[in-house]
Amino acid sequence: MLEARETTCTGYSIMKTGKSAYQAAVVFVLFVASLFIGQAHAESRQLAYLVSDKRIPFWDIMARGIQAQAGELGYSVKVFSADNRAKTELQNTATVLKQEVDGIILSPTNSSAAVTILKLAGQAEVPVVVADIGADTDNYLSYIQSDNYQGAFDLGRILAKRLKNKGWQQGRVGIVAIPQSRDNGKARTRGFLDALAEHRIKVADIHQQSDFSYRETYDYTSGLIARHPDLRAVWLQGSNRYQAALDAINDAGKSDEILLICFDAEPEFIEMIETGALVGAGMQQPFLMGRLAVRSLDRHFQGETVDPQQQVGVLAVSNRNLNTLLPIIQRNVLGQEAAE
Amino acid sequence: MIPSQHNSARNPPSLLLRITIALIALIVLVFTLHGLYLYKIQRAELLNNMHQSVEHSLQRLSTNIGPFMEAYAINDYEQLVATETALENHFAVVVRNRKMGEILGDEHYISGQIITDAGDYTGFDHTDPQMTQRLDQAFYSDTLPITGSNGDPLGSVSVYASNEPLLRKLQALLIEEIIISVLFAAVLTFLLIFVLRRYFLRSIQHIGSALKHSDDEGIPLRPLPRFKYQEVQILSQTINTMLESIKNARAKQKVQQLRLENTITGTRTGTWEWNVATGETIFNERWAEIVGYTLAELEPVSIHTWEKLTHPEDLKLSSEQLQKHFQGELDYYECEVRMRHKQGHWVWVIDRGCVMTWSDQGEPLVMYGTHQDISTDKEAQEQLSMAAGVFKYAREGIILTSVDGIILDANRAFTALTGYHRSELTGHRYDSLIPEKHDQAFFNSILDSLRRDGVWNGEFEMPCKNGTSFPSLMTIAAARDHVGRVQHFVTLVADVSSLKQNEDRLRMIAHYDGLTGLPNRLLLTERLRHAITVARRNQTLLAVVFLDLDGFKEVNDTYGHSAGDELLKVLSDRMQQTLRDCDTVARLGGDEFVILLPDLARKENCRPVLERLLTSLCCPVTLSQGHAGVSASIGVSLSSLDKEVDADILIRQADMAMYQAKQNGKNRFCFFSKETADYLDSASA
Fold first, then answer.
1. How many separate domains does chain B show?
2. What's the ipTM?
3. For the segment B461-474, what is each residue's pLDDT rounded down to a tens digit?
4. How far is B71 from chain A (nearest CA, A)?
5. Same structural domain for residues B55 and B151?
6. Cβ B225 vs Cβ B236: under 8 Å
7. Which residues of A touch B99 (CB under 8 A)?
8. DSSP 3-state assignment of B427?
9. Same domain, yes or no, for B302 and B321?
10. What is the phi/psi pair of residue A214, to 5°?
11. pLDDT band at residue A5, thresholds of 50, 70 and 90?
12. I want to staple A81 with a disulfide (CB 3.0 to 4.6 A). Which of A54, A317, B258, B530 is the partner?
């Protein structure tokens, strides 16, 4: 359940493309340089991070990323957690607006609640950067989100290669998906299916989670195994119920015949990938997203144009690139650098 | 009237056009009224819908927003509001959130949706004065409170409705109604016109075509054809029946008009028509002709034309009669007037007329009448008047009888002559007065004369009431009319009793002996000639007896001439008594007598008569002065059966035979013979 993220300071495009370390180093140098330049402008700026629930590791890691970047740029930042309560979230909004903050980073309880917050901020002429979750409106400065399609597509490729390596490319892949009403669910499914189609790997049934319970995931996985004897892999679009899927595979006595691959990350995934219990995982980078949110505000303050839609790459991690990406995972996904 | 007909025929209005216009007007009116009615209904319905929509929205929103308010899901209920606003097309929906207001430090957190000028919806910002002002322009609004699940007031929701959608809908409805109405009106008009043309106007056109061929007076020449549809068929048959009736009536009217014209012409009647109010007057040609003019010569005619030509005295009388007629005292106006003829003389005219048109106030308007030339009648009346004077005062009796012989009238002189009262004569047959002694030949001769000559003159023994009669000189004349037909007979009876007595007396003097009363020589000669003719016709013998008394001179000498005259009277009576009725005895003079004995079969048949004569004459006669005795010598001559004998010869022969009887000793008779003649010749030698 714990969404421990480790973030490393690097551009998401570099991660997405997996270019050389040289290129990453150049970008990093430029980024650090920019921090020194912007610090002088941010001395009197006060930022607020309205987060739905800071008790959730993902948001906490993102808060750390925000705080880290704000500190680097000279902004003071206060984090207001709504503890997943709408009233508190609105009270926090009213509070920060009364305090006349210069910018808000918003990770709303839901995209609908974001609308009201954005509306109030807009009336107060306070710029808002939405970090993940999204908003049912577009009157924000920028919206930063994970590139779900790219992450899922990369995961599909990893799984396809593994199946080919095992000579199981004729087998089917079952999918236990998050609700497809969400944009991120749709993007993940589309990216993964595109990758499988690229390798002509057939898909078994797709089951959509509703209550995100252990039993739900277990039953869906068992059903897939039962209905599809040629099932060779199960893809979980969420990470929190990976154990239920593993238990179902094991209980079916097919731990050596069916692979498991997940989106999102859990701290134990690093070991599971290393041991082969998990083929791979698509890991979001909250720490990096927090930092990017602050930087977006800073660019706005500097009078620069800010891309209203910003996507942060999802790290498609397998045992083959785990070691290479581990520093980035620890910093940007698990936020371990900031915690230290 | 004819010009107006001509004008109306020149530009006759089209029935189809009229009907089409009327139909279009009617349909447009109906659809307009229907559209207005629908518009009103729809408007009320739209208003009601609007109110219901507002009410329903309020109910839904107040119910659904509460939980979102409690959950501080502001955007969620704002989405709800936006959806509801857009769906129901509200002007604005404003939500007042007390809990959110508390968070923001205000009484309420106000949000909602409001429509823009462009028709889009935008979020409501109560801090924007323009939006607040715009909200005030809402046509209708209502508000419901929003309460929490525990009943706590959470705020309120207000729904505003604009009349713009209403107006747009109404405008759209109006346009739709107009389009539908126009389309329906056009289709309906087309269909109605089509139906009218096909089933009604076509029939009328056929009727019109059939009726178009008409005579000079506009009466159709041909009957209408048979039609398919019952109603038109009835109309057609009715028109045909009417046409037939009109034709018959016209024929009858023509006959009557012809009769009237013929009557007017035949009776030579002048006619006039007088508009009493205006004085305008119309005369026919005969009216003018009566007074010697042509109508053209009298133009321009008016009532003054009549007044100018009428005798002033009669004009006054006419005016009085007219006034009586106008005032209702006379059913008809009638007056005999004199009118000045063109040639200067007066013409008697009987003027008759009657007011045929009266005003509502009882004033005469139009009067019609006639003129009849009664000059001839007037003259006849005058003549009749004169005749009546003659009839009344004439000394001769006058009887008027009909052609059938019925006595029509008798004048005073006739009744005085006959002793009959007038009433006993009139009505009775004329021949009832005729004595039975007149035979039929007498009447036939009268009738023949009347038929031939128109008049009969003759003597007639007129009977009297007391059984007597008197001789009259009667003249019967047939009175004829102008065409010669006998109308009646006029009988003029003149009493000629005195004349007749004088005539008898003169005839006695001329034909009879004054002493004895026997026919004299003149009458004897007439009767002898007549007897000769009859004897020859009947092949009988006529005996002529010459008688001379023997010894008469002695009586005269003895007793004087008076005694001789007395003797002659006695002997004359004895001779008449001795002879037959058909025999004639005449005195030639002195003591000479001639007796005619007609109708003798033989010579010897006269001997007995001759002997009786000798016997009766020789018997003594007692005279006033004494007794006297004479005898007679008789000579007889006889007519011939073979040849015509002169009367004088027969008398001379009888005279000669008498002489021979004298010679032979007297008191005897002697027949003339050849020897007698020879004897006398020798004796005279």
1. 5
2. 0.75
3. 888 888 888 888 88
4. 7
5. yes
6. yes
7. 87
8. coil
9. yes
10. -60, -45
11. very low
12. A54
* Residues A102 and A161 placed together within one structural domain of the fold: no
Q: Which pLDDT tens digit goes with each residue over A80-119?
A: 999 988 899 999 999 999 999 999 999 988 888 898 999 9
Residue numbers in A near B78 (CB within 8 A): 115-116
Domain end: B196, B212, B228, which one? B212
B124-157 pLDDT, tens digit each? 888 889 888 888 888 889 999 999 888 889 999 9
Whether residue B221 sits in one domain with residue B204: no
Residue with token string 């508009």 = B275
- Please name the residue of chain B whose CA is at the shortest distance from the CA of residue A86: B72
What 3-state class would DSSP assign to B358? strand
Contacts of A136 in chain B (CB under 8 A): 75, 79
Query: What mean pLDDT is reported for chain B?
Result: 86
Q: Compute the nearest-CA separation of A123 from chain B (Å).
A: 10
Task: Kindly state whether residue B558 falls inside one of the protein's structural domains.
Answer: yes
A58 vs chain B: nearest CA distance in angstroms? Answer: 24
Give the chain B residue nearest A92 (alpha carbons): B103
Domain residues for the domain of A289 are 5-140+285-314+323-339
Assess if residue B293 is contained within a domain.
Answer: yes
Q: Which residues constitute the domain of residue B420?
A: 398-501
| pLDDT above 70 as % of chain B | 97
Same domain, B483 and B563: no
Chain A residues touching chain B at CB-CB below 8 Å: 86-87, 89-91, 94, 98, 112-116, 119-120, 123, 136-137
Q: What is the CATH number of the domain that holds A161?
A: 3.40.50.2300
- Do both A12 and A65 map to the same domain? yes
Contact yes or no for A219/A205 (Cβ under 8 A): no
User: Could you tell me if B133 and B226 lie in one domain?
Assistant: no
Name the band, by pLDDT with cuts 50, 70 and 90, for residue B6.
Answer: very low
Contacts with B637 (C-beta within 8 Å, 6 or more apart), sequence order: B543, B544, B546, B649, B650, B651, B653, B654, B656, B657, B671, B672
What is the dihedral angle through the alpha carbons of B133, B139, B140, B143, rounded to the nearest 10 degrees? -20
Q: How far is B56 from chain A (nearest CA, A)?
A: 25
Residue B633 clears pLDDT 90, i.e. is over it:
yes
Instruction: Count the neighbouring beta carbons within 10 Å of the beta carbon of residue B6.
Output: 9
Instruction: Examine the domain organization and report whether B426 and B317 are in the same domain.
Output: no
In-domain check, residue B659 = yes
Residue A156 shares a structural domain with residue A112: no
CA distances from residue B74 to A117, B67, B112 in whole angstroms, order as listed: 9, 10, 10
pLDDT at B436: 63
B641 and B535 within one domain: yes
Q: Is the pTM of this model over 0.95?
A: no
Q: Are residues A183 and A202 in the same domain?
A: yes
Contact (CB<8Å) A91/B74:
no
B543 in helix, strand or coil? strand
Give the end-to-end CA distance of chain A in Å, rounded to a whole number. 21
- Is B506 among the domain residues? no
User: Quick one: A228 and A192 in the same domain?
Assistant: yes
Instruction: Report CB contact under 8 Å: B72, A94.
Output: no
Q: Are residues A28 and A71 in the same domain?
A: yes
Do residues B516 and B576 both lie within one domain? yes
- Closest to A112 (Cβ–Cβ): which among B76, B103, B125? B76
Q: Would the CB atoms of A115 and B75 count as touching at under 8 Å?
A: yes
For chain A, the average pLDDT equals 85
How many structural domains are present in chain A?
A: 2
